[in-house]
Each structure stands twice: as structure tokens, then as C-alpha cells.
Amino acid sequence: MTQHAQAFDQWIRTDFKAINTELEQLYFQQQDKANVEGVGDDLKARMESGGRGFIEKLLAEGNTDEGFDSNFDLLGNVGMYMAACRRHDLTEPSRERKSPLKAASALALHIGASLGVTPRFATSHLTTHCLAKAGVPKRFTSLDDEALFIDYNTLAVLAYKRAADALVRILPMGISHPVAIHLLEDARQALVDVAKWNQVLFDKLDSERFFNSVRPYYKPFRVGQHEYRGANAGDFAGINEIDMLLGLCQANNPFYSQLLVDKFLYMMPEDQRRLRDVMRRRSFLDDLLSAAKTDADSDWFQRVLPAFLAVQQAHGHTAIQHHDQLVSRFIAKPSTEMAAQHLKQVTASGPPLEVLMRSLQGLRDLRAAAPRDDIPSRYRDINALSALVKGQRHD
Ligand code: HEM
């Protein structure tokens, strides 16, 4: 890391965080907690000019080749600064044609393009790739609810990644291999952990604090000319690897492939590679449906089938939790209580809330193999396989 990059990092970890925290306390005291207009203007100006000072020096220095990790980290810092300017309404994509943060945009575009990632902070900057110093990771604020939200998101992301790793390892040996059943069990246990962390978020996160003081840092903003959607916990490959290897979502379904295409640059390059690889594989569900024609009564099939179905159920359960608990309590409900003038700012990805909710419901139902015929749910295939588990056969 260059000296300028280090100084900027230190500022992000100290003054930047203190100013954001102070502003959040001022907003939160108001009757209309979503209002930021005319509140703490001196603090906002200090934040904007403080960050600009570091960024102008970094821009003049050029994208010196300090290796992927340093450059990615710097991109995270520039992105956090731009996201905070957006949160405090110093920038607002719908009233601009290009970002007024010229130096920050130039630096972010330069680094993002050279690394092959989106030119803004991504979820991995705050979760799996966020370096802690003396026990404290980088955060926007020192609010307890931000720490809780990010720490449990990180744990859930890591658990999904563990499940995906186990499933990917089955590919070269095939689903009928005697070891596959153990890998399926590893995947199931990892998904049970995802459910555990989701439950902690549901039980412990304060919805008013999250909605008003944490979530606003994840809004879309412009970098240069273009607007980039907000970061969300889903920007890693593991969950989609699980979707596709289990056969619940398919890369040739335009709804799903659009989602994948849109998220590629929000992921680390290593995740991009993994996802590309899995997109061209055949699913275990399809393998099992083919094998059922000849091997339904064989020992291997009768051992693997319940293990596979248990993984599918565990995955479906985490998706149902995400939608029916987390999105419902922390996004949908507070949105209905929010003053109408702020509503269009609610989602991180930008589309109106009802459009976003429909799309998330679709994902939930695909993962849960729910009985729906308007989307390519595999519920008939899952039911057909379930009926083949010995002891449950009706033929
Ligand atoms: C996407 C809400 C926690 C995984 C989303 C979206 C929302 C949301 C609203 C849609 C994108 C957007 O914001 O525009 C929440 C809330 C959470 C939470 C309120 C907790 C308070 C988590 C956790 C995970 C997760 C712990 C696990 C890693 C995902 C995934 C997506 C997503 C994978 C992308 C869409 C998909 O593939 O389902 N989330 N989320 N979320 N979230 Fe969460």
C-alpha cells in the first residue's frame, strides 16, 4: 500500500466513520428519520472535502501496481466514500447526468476496470475481504446494528461458500461415487449453519436502526456517467453454484441468467471464474432423474437420493427464511411505514419495491421447488424423486 493509500485507509477507519456515526445520530433523532435535508451540513461538507483531499493525491499518483489485494482494498475505500456521499444526499443519481465526485469517479473507474470488477465498493469489501485492524473491521459507522448486520452476513456467506465447495467437489467423481453422500451431508450441514445465522439476524437486528441507519449506505450511485446498483449480501458465487448444481435454477432460464449476468462484476474475480464453470455443468438433479430409469432400486441410488433431497430442503429453507423473515421484516414492512417522498430510494438494486419483491419471491420458490407453473420450478421432478425413496414408494 502506498503512503497516500495508507493515509486514506486510516481516515476511512477513523474520521470518516466518526462523521457518519454523528450524522446517523442526528437523522435518527428526527420524527421523519429518513430525512437528511438540512441536517448536519457542516459535517457532510467535512466528510466530502476530507475524502476528496486524499483521493486527489491518489489519482495524481496513478494506479501504481501494488498487487490485487491493495488495489481492491483501495477501491473499497473510494467506494465507501462515494456510498456515504450518496447516503448523505451529496450525490443523487436521478438528479445528475454524471457523478459530481469527479476525482473519486476517475480513481474508481481506473481501479475497477484494471481489476475486472465493478467500480464501486462491493459486499466482499465489507465482509469476506475486510481487513480488521486491532480487532476492528472497516465499517461506515460504529453503530452496533451495522456490526451485527455485517458480521452475520459474513458468517452466512461463508457457510454458503462451504456448501458450494462440498457440492463442487462431487463433480469430478460423480453423484454415484461412495464419497458423494458425505459431501452432500457436508453441504447440508453448511446450509443448516446459514439458517442459524439468518435466524440470529432475524432475532437480534433492530429493524428501525437497520432500515434508517445501515441500509442507506447500500444505495445505487453514479460512478462517472453510469449508475451502479447497490451492494447486497448475495454478491458471491456460492449461492448460485448451489442453485445450479442442485438443478433448482438453470442458466438457460432468462430470468435467472439475467441475474447472473448482472452480478458478475460485483463478485471477486475468483468467484466469477467459479460461477462460469458451474454454469456449463449438468445438475445432480438431472443426473438422478436419468439414473432413476435404470438404478432406482440400487444401493447407491437409495443411499444418495435422501441425502440429495435433504440438501435441497435445507437450501429451500434458507431461501424461505431470507424472503419471509429478513426481507419481510427489514425491508418490506418498514417501507410501508415510510413517508411517501422517500419510498423510491428504498431498494439497493434500484427497481421499485414490488418489482424487487416479485423477483425475490421467484428465487425463493425456485430454491424451495415450490408448486408454481409460471416459473420453471422443479417441484414435479423433486416430487417424482421423493416418491422413489424406499419406504415411500407407492407402486
Ligand atoms: C438480495 C435483503 C441478509 C443473501 C437481497 C435483496 C434484499 C435483501 C432486499 C435484493 C437486492 C436489493 O437490495 O435490491 C436482506 C436483508 C437481510 C439480508 C434485509 C438481513 C437483514 C442476507 C444474508 C444472506 C443474503 C444473511 C446470505 C448470504 C442474499 C442473496 C441475494 C440477496 C443471495 C441476491 C438475490 C438472490 O440470489 O436471492 N437481500 N438480505 N441476504 N440477499 Fe439478502
Automatic annotation (TrEMBL):
Organism encoding this protein: Ferrimonas sediminum
MF terms in GO: heme binding; metal ion binding
Protein name: Tryptophan 2,3-dioxygenase
GO biological process: L-tryptophan catabolic process to kynurenine
InterPro entries (UniProt xref): PrnB (IPR015029), Trp/Indoleamine_2_3_dOase-like (IPR037217)
SUPFAM superfamilies xref list: Indolic compounds 2,3-dioxygenase-like
Coiled-coil ranges per UniProt: none
